[in-house]
Design brief:
alpha+beta; 16% helix; 37% strand
Length: 180
């Protein structure tokens, strides 16, 4: 299975959208783009490349993205937030800078087969449903405010100052989680 997200672009044509597809099983990951035109009978996936026509790979070739979920966000819709099965990890990929950040142990529960929605006021994230493991289906609705907002704000500030991710940042976030 693959994850498909709509990229925000400056195209004024309301009949065209750009789609990013990525994912797949280990060692067979594919990353492609499509300029989807509603009125066209032929839409084609093309390799996901940078400005120099180099192929962009999201993650590593040995990552298993078979059940990955993602959403695009950030102040300029330049961040790709990714969740993986059976864990409480959030991966953040900067589309513009082709950089990764990984946050482990930042959420109260694993995020597998769930949906996350940002409130209209941008002050809450609603996490609905999901699975705790392969056999345990959750019927929960978690409304999270400060913790997620703090983490997302931290990601954005880190990207703006273009500093690298260091292990000390993981410790800072872990300490913050324990303080709640």
């Amino acid at each position: 299975a693959y994850c498909v997200v709509k990229l925000v672009d400056n195209n004024k044509d309301s009949n065209q959208i750009t789609l990013l597809s990525f994912g797949g099983p280990k060692f067979r990951n594919r990353h492609t783009l499509m300029k989807y035109v509603k009125l066209n009978n032929y839409n084609k996936w093309t390799p996901f490349t940078d400005n120099h026509n180099n192929t962009i790979i999201i993650g590593r070739n040995d990552n298993d993205y078979e059940v990955v979920r993602a959403v695009i966000g950030g102040s300029n819709n330049h961040l790709l937030f990714i969740t993986f099965q059976f864990n409480n990890i959030i991966a953040l990929y900067s589309i513009q800078e082709n950089k990764w950040m990984l946050f482990e142990n930042t959420l109260p529960s694993p995020l597998f087969d769930c949906v996350a929605i940002l409130s209209e006021e941008d002050n809450y994230i609603h996490i609905i449903g999901g699975r705790a493991d392969i056999n345990t289906i959750l019927s929960t609705h978690t409304k999270t405010k400060l913790k997620i907002k703090f983490i997302i704000g931290y990601w954005i500030r880190t990207l703006q100052i273009k500093s690298g991710w260091i292990d000390d940042f993981n410790k800072i976030i872990m300490k913050y989680n324990r303080m709640k």
